[in-house]
Every structure is written in C-alpha cells, then in structure tokens.
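The records we work with from here on pair a chain with its fold. The integers have meaning only within a learned vocabulary of local backbone shapes. A complete example follows; check for yourself that the lines match position by position.

:::
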Amino acid sequence: IETLSATEELRAAVAGAARTGLPIVATMTFDTHGVAMMGVTTQAAMQLREGLPARPIGFGANCGIGPAQLIESVLGLMRAATPDDLIVAKGNCGVPHYHDGRIHYDGTPEVMAAYACMARDAGARVIGGCCGTTAAHIQAMATALAARPPAPPPDRRAIEAALGPLPAPPAAGTEGDRQRRRRRA
C-alpha cells in the first residue's frame, strides 16, 4: 500500500489488504516538513498505525518531492518509532521536468546512492525508489549501501549538501506557520 495522504485512505486500504491474510507494508507520502497533503504528520502517522485493522509489518514514506525531503520524512517517522519498527523509504528520483514531450527526473544514480545511504542512516531498513527511479539508480543504491559503512543520522546540513535544498520552515507567526500548526493539531 503506497502513496497515501489521509488517515481514512490508510484505514480503508489496510482493512482491505488484511482480508488477504498476507503481510502488509504501507507508505504515506509527505510533502514539505513531514506533513501529508491532508495534514497528517509523520509522528501522527506512526501513532495511527497502532489502531489499524491490521498492523503493517513495515511502514514508511514514499514519493514526495525528491530524496532530500524523503530523508526528512524518515527522520520524522523515526522520532515516533519503536526499536521493533521496520521503516520503509522510497524516494522519488529527483524532481520531474517536462521536456520534449516526456517527463524526466533530475536525480542521478549518484544522488540516489547518497539518498540510500542517508535513508539507512536515518533509520530506514527497506530502501528503494519511487517515481523516476530506474535500474541504474537501484544498482547505484545497492552498490553504495554495500560499500559505505553506516553513519549517524544525517542533519539538515548534511542532507542539503548531498541531496539538495530542503524548503525553509515557515517563519514563526506567518500564515504558513499557522497553517502548519493547524495541520499538525
């Protein structure tokens, strides 16, 4: 189950999948600052899965607006995770651009390799790619994960240095800040 943005979607999808008796893995998509389109925060998503009709064996984030943002979402999920949680990370291969009648993603295999290592360091244990990811990206990710030893969780500066800029948090007291606080409430 992937690319969900609302609690109702997650509940309905898990209820349907639970009927199969098979293990369930679910991911939600979070936009900037770890908030899904329908206002669900990464921390709220982790708490929500406890009350689902079946508990997913893996839970995490996919899609989004690029690998840097996905790492930020994984860090948010980990803040509410327990040691037994299996966190999933499947970031887009950069940002899509329309060129010559086709959609192209700007993420290179090298960027996705750095993303995979940062996802592992942030706490993800199932790591893959979403939109725009090709076999060349997956190969680079697998090679990097095998070659690079684990490191401490990345901070904002390390994420931006390796993967590109993250959106700046809304300034306190601005309309964006008030909307963000309302969505998280």
Q: What stands out?
A: Residues 24 and 56 are 5 Å apart (CA to CA). Residues 174-180 have pLDDT under 50 and may be disordered. Residues 109-122 form the longest helix (14 residues).
